[in-house]
Structures are given as structure tokens and as C-alpha cells.
Amino acid sequence: MLTATEYRTAAIAIGGVTVQVNASDPDFVRMLEERYAGFIGSGQEPDYEFDIELAAPADADPDADVGVFREGRTWHLERGDFRAQWDPALRRGRIRQSANPYSIDAVLRIVHSLVLAGQGGMLVHAASAVRNGRAFLFAGVSGAGKTTISRLAPPDATLLTDEISYLRREGAGYTAYGTPFAGELGKPGENIRAPLAALYLLAQGRRNTIEPVGATEAARALLESILFFAHDSELVGRVFESACELVSRVPVFRLTFCPDARVWELIQ
Amino acid sequence: MKNAYIARSTDIASRMFAGETMIMSPRDSTLFNLNETASAIWEAADGRTSLEQIIEQHVCAAFDVTPEEAMKDAESLVQELAEHGILKVSEEPIS
To answer: What ipTM score was computed for the predicted complex, to two decimals?
Structure first.
């Protein structure tokens, strides 16, 4: 007997790249629409399309780390809770995962990190905000203060994210885009963009200080903050080049701060 | 080692900032920072010039260092970079 599966779709547009996901479970798609509210596209042709099969991956190891590797044209994206294949040339892929938001969230981050790596952009473990039409990035490891600096932002600043920042190479500089990838703040960023004015490397201290950082140290710190998962020497080399390029075009500072809103007086 | 020939691996990414060189091995993402003297050796590592000639022409001629000191530091540098596959070392010129 022939059967037909009816799919519902959600087009998730982040950083100007639209990923449409198709799933047969309307409740799951509705959950995605709520989770990515503000980033749901309508009407435009998707850049990439994924069919989601809602089932736990076979022989899944819940503790397995992320694995991203390429076989021919096809990327394989794996973690304990999902398995995905993606052919960028065909612009199609498929994901096998249970009906949870975290697996698709990870797949989206990986797909965007691969797309950006080929274009000179990057996903950065950083908070970012727009003020007076200019974007500022605050990079740091967990506990460095990304969420704290986000909470301290003045009313005229618009938060792009408190966790994962999205940078595209555009013209002679970089543009920061809002993302739905939230950290401890627990809410998505605004879906807007602005030219990147400065990168701040966060450190917590007893007073607010700011000092310029040399290019070598800046590149090293940025590389440590870039989200990149693929075991692919060519793309890893391109990520290195992109980090070096960014710190040669964008001023980088070390921002040491205490939990005090006056720190934003230093952000210019 | 002074008669050895050294050549930069093609399987690396590098960038020079104000005289210092940052190198990354895409194989394992290891990062190295080279100071100005080490960068001079790195830039001259063309596989056709011996380490002794590099020290004489690119290090002692440009920096205030004796050939003995420079060679000692260079041997240590070459050994470390070679261990990570970033630099090739041979007793013959490397094409």
C-alpha cells in the first residue's frame, strides 16, 4: 500500500540564510515556530531545506560529542541525540532526532558555521548588541560575563544575542546579525543587523577598565571563541584566515568589568 | 643541524602581524606565535637555503645576536615546528 506523508514546514532565517525544516508532526513544527519567533521567514525561497524524521537515532550514544565530517559532497553531522546529512550543492539534507528543540538548534548552529566558514564569516561564542547603529561584540568563555554585560545594557541598546553572535563579511568590514541562540538570559536576540564597530574580550574584575589588544593576541582569543565543529583542514584554514582578517579590520579591546552598568560608558 | 634545509609545510595557515607570525596547523588546530627573529627564519625557510645561511643572512644581519646564539635558538625552533609537521627538515634541498 502506498502512503503519503504530509509535511509541515518552518523557514528559519538567521543572518540572511533561510533554512527550511520539514516535519510530519505539526506540534513539533509549532514548537519550532515559537522557539524561533522573530526569525521565521515567510514566502522567500529557502537557501537550504531539511526533512526531519522524528525518531531517536539508531545506536545513539547520549554522551557522544559532536562529530562533523565530509564524505564527498555530503556533510555528516552527528551527536548522541541526532544524525544529519546535508548536501550543500543540492541544498537539501535530512535529520533524524527526537522531538526536542536542542537537536535542531545544534544542527542549525553547525550548518550556519559551515556556511559562514566558506564566506569569511563566523559564529562566535559572544554576546552582541547594537547601539547608535553600530554593533559591539563581547566574547568570552562561559562565566566571562556575556550574560551579565547583556543584562547591564542601557535601554537604547538592542541585544542581538547573549550567547552566539553571527558575523558576516560584508564590504570592507563585518556585519553582526541577531540570532535566536540564547544563553542564560533565556530569550532570543532581536532580528536586526548592524556594522561591527568593535570586539571586546571580556574579563571580570573589581573595576571597569579597557585596553587595546594586539593583533596576535586578539586573533588567538577570537579563534578560541569561534564555534567550529568540522574536521576539515581546508575549512579550518579558512576560519584561521577569517579570524586574522577580522582583527586586522576591527578594533579589539580587553574589557575588564565589575557588575556595574557604568561599564557601558566605555563602549563606543 | 646547521647544514640542514628547512621548508614551510604547505598544510598550514599563517599570518604575519607587525613582524610576528601566527601559525596554525589545520590538522590539529595547534597555534604557534613566532617572534621577529623566529619569523625571519620562517620567512626564509624556502627549502633551498641551508639553516646556516639563513642564520647568517636573515638573523645575524638583522638582529643583534651572535651566530652561535642564533643557531642554538634556531635549532630549538626548527625541532619544535618539525615535531608538529609545520616545518620540513632535510639534509638535502627540498623542492
So the answer is: 0.84
What is the residue type of A236?
Answer: V
Closest CA to A181 of A147, A144, A218, A143: A147
Which residue in B9, B10, B11, B22 has the most chain A C-beta atoms within 10 A of its own C-beta, making it the best mutation to test that interface? B22
Domain A122-266 has CATH 3.90.228.20: yes
Number of domains in chain B: 1
Whole-model pTM? 0.91
Residue of A151, A172, A146 lying closest to A246 (CA atoms): A172
Alpha-carbon distance A21 to A70, whole Å? Answer: 21
- Measured in angstroms, the CA of B72 and the nearest CA of chain A are apart by 25
A223 neighbourhood in chain B, CB within 8 Å: 24, 31
pLDDT digits (tens, 9 = 90+) for A237-264: 999 999 999 999 999 999 999 988 999 9
B40 within a domain of the structure (yes/no): yes
CB contact under 8 A, A215 and B31: no
Q: What are the boundaries of each domain within chain A?
A: 8-117, 122-266
Cell of A182: 540564547
pLDDT, tens only, B43-86: 999 999 999 999 999 999 999 999 999 999 999 999 999 988 89
- In chain B, which residues have their Cβ closer than 8 Å to the Cβ of A244? 15, 17, 22
**CATH number, domain with residue B74:** 3.90.930.60
